[in-house]
Amino acid sequence: MKNLLFCLLLVIVFSGNAQTTAPQRGEGSLYTISTQNLRMAVDTANGARISSFQVSESELLYVDFSNNNMAGSTFWPSPQSVWNWPPLVNLDSKPYQADIKGNRLIVAGNTDSKTNLRFYKIFQGNAADTSIVIDYVMKNEKSTSQKWAPWEVTRVAGNGVTLYEKGDVAPTGILEPFTEEIDGMIWYDQDKNKITQSGTFKFIGDGKGWIAHVVGGKYLLLKQFENIAQADAAPSEGEIEVYTARNSTYTEVENQGAYVSIASKDSVTWRVKWYARQLPANVDAKVGSASLVNYIHGILSRSVSPVSYNTIEKEKVKVYPNPANDFLMIDFNGVELCDARMAVYSMQGSKVIDQPISQSRKPVSVGNLSKGVYLYEILQGRSAVANGRFAIERQ
Question: At 101, is the pLDDT very low, low, confident or very high (cuts 50, 70, 90)?
Answer without folding.
Answer: confident
